[in-house]
């Protein structure tokens, strides 16, 4: 099994609660999971989240998944068929927590409208002046691991 290292960055502030919101998918905001719980197929150990893609199909197509409760909140994106990226979910513009949208390969922070490339976290449009901070993502078979620490 091959492991692929993925860098991730995100906008938003953490609230210290463990949980996840479902994918926003193309152009939408996802549902949410109550604090202290994780969706089916997602486990957390310290600052590491493990997503069993065979159980949790929320990233079975291009989409966005938000995880909280680690060292930083994380955006996990399926940017292409076999390409997963993860980013710190705090916007580099203001560092605030916010809602994210994903569509056409672009992540948009809905706090002030900054736009980032989902494939790299690179800044597409401000007011942010830098891209998203990448997190480490590895994939081994149907298991995706995201380190937020």
Automatic annotation (TrEMBL):
User: What keywords does the record list, in alphabetical order?
Assistant: 2Fe-2S, Iron, Iron-sulfur, Metal-binding
Name all Rieske domain ranges: 51-146
Q: Which InterPro entries match?
A: Rieske_2Fe-2S (IPR017941), Rieske_2Fe-2S_sf (IPR036922)
Which Pfam families does the entry mention? Rieske (PF00355)
Gene3D superfamilies found in the cross-reference section: Rieske [2Fe-2S] iron-sulphur domain
Q: Name one GO molecular function term.
A: metal ion binding
Q: Where is this region: Disordered?
A: 15-41
Sequence ranges of Gly residues compositional bias? 15-33
Protein name from the UniProt record: Rieske domain-containing protein
């Amino acid at each position: 099994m091959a492991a692929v290292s993925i860098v991730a960055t995100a906008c938003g502030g953490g609230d210290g609660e463990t949980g996840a919101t479902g994918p926003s998918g193309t152009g939408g905001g996802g549902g949410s999971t109550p604090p202290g719980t994780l969706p089916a197929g997602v486990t957390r150990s310290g600052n590491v989240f493990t997503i069993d893609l065979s159980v949790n199909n929320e990233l079975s197509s291009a989409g966005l998944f938000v995880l909280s409760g680690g060292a930083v909140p994380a955006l996990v994106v399926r940017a292409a068929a076999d390409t997963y990226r993860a980013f710190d979910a705090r916007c580099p513009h203001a560092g605030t927590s916010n809602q994210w949208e994903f569509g056409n390969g672009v992540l948009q922070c809905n706090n002030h409208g900054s736009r980032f490339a989902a494939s790299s976290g690179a800044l597409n449009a401000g007011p942010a002046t830098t891209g998203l901070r990448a997190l480490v993502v590895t994939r081994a078979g149907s298991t995706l691991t995201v380190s937020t620490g």
